Amino acid sequence: MDAALEAAGLDALMLLQVHDELVFEVPDD
Hints:
The chain is of the alpha+beta class.
């Protein structure tokens, strides 16, 4: 998943993956 975000050029960090729930930390733009 992190590789997919990086490939898409998104500056996001996946913090947590629990079951089907994803939590992301993204910078404020």
